[in-house]
Amino acid sequence: MKKSWVMIALMVVSSACSQSVQPTTANKTVTQSPPQHEHSVNAATVPAHFEVPPAKSSLGPTLDPEKFSGAARDAYRAVRAIPVTIAQLPCYCHCDRGFGHKSLYSCFEDDHAAHCAVCVQEALLALRLEKEQKLTPAQIRDTIVAQYSR
């Protein structure tokens, strides 16, 4: 009986991560800015994120990356490496709407990201863009918005 509830919960989380739901702007506690790229994206369709960098000390703890394997472990490590940047990014699995997440960072405070390819891919992309291309959090956000809002 207990296993079936766990399976149902995993299916719900997995389903939420794969849906392409447009968020509403009602009850948002974080601000959104229009992206700075060639094609226009409605700011209301950009998932929640912190526009002003939060203090690192104000962010909750993330799960230990060593609890996971493969790309999920790498993504949890990425979030620990650049937490303030990750907090300034929207998550395009639209978990802000389904789970009340405030930014991509929220996905890594529990095991949500470990079951969501979108969360993992965004975190790994953010780390690569910051470390290799020396992009700012705003530039990384614009890149993610451009890539995932198509």
Unreliable segments (pLDDT under 50, ≥5 consecutive)?
A: 1-40
Radius of gyration: 15 Å
Number of E-type strands: 0
Helicity, as a percent range: 40-55%
Q: Could you give a short account of the major beta sheet?
A: none
- Number of helix segments? 6
Oligomer class: single chain
- In one word, what is the shape? globular
Report the average pLDDT across residues: 77
Total discrete domains: 1
Order of helices and strands: HHHHHH
Indicate the proportion of strand residues. Answer: under 5%
Describe the structure.
The longest helix is centred in the first third of the chain and has 17 residues, at 2-18. With 150 residues, the protein is an all-alpha fold. It starts with a helix and ends with a helix. Helix 2 (70-81) crosses helix 5 (117-131) and helix 5 (117-131) crosses helix 6 (137-148). It has one domain (2-148). The chain is built from 6 helices and no strands. It is globular.
